[in-house]
From TrEMBL:
<protein>
    <submittedName>
        <fullName>M20 family metallopeptidase</fullName>
    </submittedName>
</protein>
<dbReference type="InterPro" id="IPR011650">
    <property type="entry name" value="Peptidase_M20_dimer"/>
</dbReference>
<dbReference type="InterPro" id="IPR002933">
    <property type="entry name" value="Peptidase_M20"/>
</dbReference>
<dbReference type="Pfam" id="PF07687">
    <property type="entry name" value="M20_dimer"/>
</dbReference>
<dbReference type="InterPro" id="IPR036264">
    <property type="entry name" value="Bact_exopeptidase_dim_dom"/>
</dbReference>
<keyword id="KW-0378">Hydrolase</keyword>
<keyword id="KW-0479">Metal-binding</keyword>
<dbReference type="InterPro" id="IPR050072">
    <property type="entry name" value="Peptidase_M20A"/>
</dbReference>
<dbReference type="Pfam" id="PF01546">
    <property type="entry name" value="Peptidase_M20"/>
</dbReference>
<dbReference type="InterPro" id="IPR017150">
    <property type="entry name" value="Pept_M20_glutamate_carboxypep"/>
</dbReference>
<feature type="domain" description="Peptidase M20 dimerisation">
    <location>
        <begin position="180"/>
        <end position="274"/>
    </location>
</feature>
Length: 378
């Protein structure tokens, strides 16, 4: 894949220009108008670069998925999975316009994951230009990944069915990073409704919602098992009105991460079984496992990444991470998945988000090598 790397290195200015184009249209997950503007910019650009005729939109509204197919000469279909949405609100671009200085590209969503989309398009184009045989490629781009993929997940699962490999364009880390497994992510909100009373005159008449959720917090924290990767975070705990009032209302928001389904069920079963000590407090629990654990790396893809990187003279840096992605959903559907194939850089979801421009040729060559050399369909 060193030919791909050299080709991309020669046209790095074009790649950066494409990145500027995508970052230049803001695409917050929660803004349908901007998202469709982003898609209107993205689709013709991909079509032109790939000379692709088959572009479809699966579904409509916030869960819509763009599907672009380019046939190949080898058997099987490789799915490239990305998302167009970012966590940044409209107006961020005006404060932090796209820029490149000292080999570092910045701008809202540059790392997560507009650079990944640009890499995917250039990887396929480079293979074709160099005449490297490859399987068919299906690019799937959702627009609700950053808000949990509730609308897009069924389209992604259907459209990826039977793929010989799923390569996820989420950000990497350094030049040789790939992500081989991700924890599952569970999100819950618990609301408690008790009985208000005067804390001094009439304490027995009250039933504290705050005390109930404080007890639940202690219980939940006790369910964490860091040695097997299970973490519990009560990130929000609010309730009550005044110190001398027994609290009628309280609310808790919970984030749980687990490496295995067994651990995921252990925590969610314990939450479901919990009851407040005072049965006058009513509790309502909403939420669940937003993305299932992805615990089994795809060995053939991991090996392929190792060998492509070694042929490029780049140190292999496989990682298992706590953050979920749509890779979790497709791994749970039984597909071989490799993730974190986007740019090298850092600061995802933060103001200091950045992409290392000089690593783009290596990252694109890695992706190209995985596409060309993916095991064919079973
Ligand atoms: Zn992302």
């Amino acid at each position: 894949m060193s030919d791909v790397r050299s080709l991309i290195a020669r046209r790095l200015d074009d790649v950066v220009e494409d990145l500027a184009l995508l970052v230049g249209v803001e695409t917050p997950s929660t803004d349908p108008v901007l998202l469709s503007r982003g898609a209107a910019e993205f689709v013709p650009w991909v079509k032109e670069r790939w000379r692709a005729e088959r572009v479809r939109t699966l579904g409509d509204g916030p869960g819509a998925v763009i599907q672009v197919d380019v046939p190949g000469s080898l058997p099987g279909t490789v799915v490239l999975l990305g998302h167009l949405d970012t966590v940044f609100d409209a107006g961020t671009l005006a404060q932090r316009p796209f820029s490149v200085a000292g080999g570092i590209a910045r701008g809202p969503g540059v790392f997560d994951m507009k650079a990944g989309l640009v890499q995917a398009v250039h990887a396929v184009a480079a293979l074709d230009e160099l005449g490297v045989p490859r399987p068919s490629v299906r690019l799937l781009v959702s627009a609700d990944e950053e808000i949990g993929s509730l609308g897009s997940r069924s389209f992604l699962v259907d459209a990826a069915a039977g793929a010989s490999a799923v390569l996820v364009l989420e950000p990497g880390g350094v030049a040789g990073t790939v992500k081989t497994a991700r924890k599952g992510v569970g999100l819950w909100t618990v609301t408690a409704t008790g009985v208000a009373s005067h804390a001094g005159l009439d304490p027995e008449a009250g039933a504290s919602a705050v005390h109930a959720l404080a007890a639940l917090t202690t219980h939940l924290v006790g369910l964490a098992a860091p040695s097997v990767g299970t973490t519990v975070n009560v990130g929000v705990l609010t309730g009550g009105t005044r110190p001398n009032v027994v609290a009628e209302h309280a609310r808790l928001e919970l984030d749980v991460r687990a490496r295995t389904m067994d651990e995921a069920s252990r925590v969610s079963d314990a939450l479901a079984a919990w009851r407040p000590d005072d049965d006058r407090v009513r509790v309502e629990v909403t939420g669940g496992w937003n993305r299932p654990p992805w615990s089994e790396p795809a060995p053939e893809l991991v090996e392929r990444a190792r060998s492509v990187l070694s042929s490029l003279g780049v140190a292999f840096d496989p990682r298992e991470v706590g953050g979920g992605s749509d890779g979790n959903i497709l791994a749970a559907a039984g597909l071989p998945v490799l993730d974190g194939l986007g740019a090298s850089g850092g600061g995802a979801h933060a103001e200091h988000e950045y992409v290392v421009v000089d690593d783009l040729p290596v990252r694109i060559a890695l992706l190209a090598g995985l596409i060309a050399g993916s095991p064919s369909a079973p």
